[in-house]
Amino acid sequence: MNIAVIGAGAAGFFAAISAKQHHPEAVVHLFEKTNKVLAKVRISGGGRCNVTHACFDNDLLIRHYPRGEKFLKKSFHQFQVQDTIDWFTNRGVALKTEKDQRMFPTTDDSSSIVDALTSAYKNLGGQLHMQSAISTLTPKNPGFEAIVNSQTHFFDRVIIATGGAPKEAGLQWLKRLGHNIVMPVPSLFTFNLPHHPVTELMGAVAPHVKVRVEGEKFVSKGPLLITHWGMSGPAILKLSAFSARLLAECQYETTFVVSWLGDYTEDQVRALFEDQIKHKPMAQLSSFRLPEVPKRLWLYLLDTLDIPSDKRWNEFSKKHRNQLLNALLYDRYQMSGKTTFKEEFVTCGGVSLSDVDPHTLESKRQNGLYFAGEVLDIDGVTGGFNFQAAWTTGFIAGKLQSRA
């Protein structure tokens, strides 16, 4: 049996390995159109590779996928987080869990992951073809005819793992094979705040914020990083993922609201103020410390409200208290554009999940055609979830099971 896997990213490599493991007699060809393999694996997590996330309850795990939640719930029963850990551990790559539950190789070096994948595939006898773009793929029922670098090849099974496409045009060849395509738009991006004075606080991190797009119900929580162009960090990236289509529709021009104190209520904030007034009446506002609010941000909020930082708590008027409460819990910012890091580009959209069997990853439109990874309309928030989806879908696709 001749098997073609198109795309040598995380999902493609894992699918090729799985195909060779499950069908040792088959000839597996892994095609990569560029001269680099596992590009995202190499650069993810600042070059450390965020392999997966230490979430071992599938019902909780699927909540981190804005698209594909129900689909992956069925797929994770076959290959889940513990399976990922075991796979790499069995190949000499131990993983560690950090405070935020992200998992990395203990080497803190993505090359450990790259080497494990490439060595596993090579040792199984799989074939890797670099700079080999498949220009056409034609169903022959059974099998497929493919044109690779102007040469014609025949394959009994094909696994497509070409990753996300920034534009729908990049998925037209799959549409011509009969698949419905969900319009791709960016996911996981930062919010730009051009010329906003808050950017002068670049590098400041608020550890426990709550953020939402104004007028929308979804709320994202976690650390927020202020950058020289706007706002980033897990809270913003998660919001960008769950609001990807909404933000695309408004062309990334909208108002979002930040609660710098996370889940604090108005009554709790008022109680904090009253406690300071009662117990430290002569202390200056500038000396007040909240673990949720960096000092520079605290002083910035006072400044924007024209509240002198040397004002004492016993001079803190009711008007100023209300203004500061609103700034801490309902701070409004006007997003104007986004910043997406090309190397870690993630898309919302792709091949419609209604066209794919979640138990086998086989197309419902073309027998013998399988999908894995981000080419599907699946994407997760930051934290290792997108890689876990890649390992899971790649493993299942590589089984080459036929739909029931």
Could you walk me through the main structural features you see in this protein, from its secondary elements to its overall organization?
- The chain is α+β, with helices and mostly antiparallel strands and 404 residues long.
- The protein folds into 2 domains: 2-186 and 344-399, 3-Layer(bba) Sandwich (FAD/NAD(P)-binding domain); 189-339, no CATH class.
- It has 13 helices and 20 strands.
- The chain has helices spanning 10-22, 39-47, 58-61, 69-75, 81-89, 111-123, 172-175, 234-242, 244-249, 266-279, 295-304, 318-329, 385-399, and strands spanning 2-6, 27-31, 52-53, 95-97, 102-105, 127-129, 134-139, 144-148, 151-155, 157-160, 181-187, 190-192, 205-213, 220-226, 230-232, 253-259, 331-336, 338-339, 346-351, 369-371.
- The chain has a 7-stranded antiparallel beta sheet.
- Helix 1 runs parallel beside helix 6 (111-123) and helix 1 (10-22) packs parallel to helix 13.
- The radius of gyration is 25 Å and the shape is elongated.
- The model has no long low-confidence stretch (mean pLDDT 95).
Q: What are the key terms here?
A:
13 helices; single chain; seven-stranded antiparallel sheet; five-stranded parallel sheet; FAD/NAD(P)-binding domain; elongated; 404 residues; alpha+beta
CATH superfamily of the largest domain: FAD/NAD(P)-binding domain
Mean pLDDT: 95
Number of helices: 13
Termini separation (Å)?
21 Å
State the major sheet. Answer: 7 strands, antiparallel
Total domain modules: 2
CATH architectural name of the largest domain: 3-Layer(bba) Sandwich
- Uncertain residue segments: none
Please give the radius of gyration in angstroms: 25 Å
Principal-axis shape equals elongated
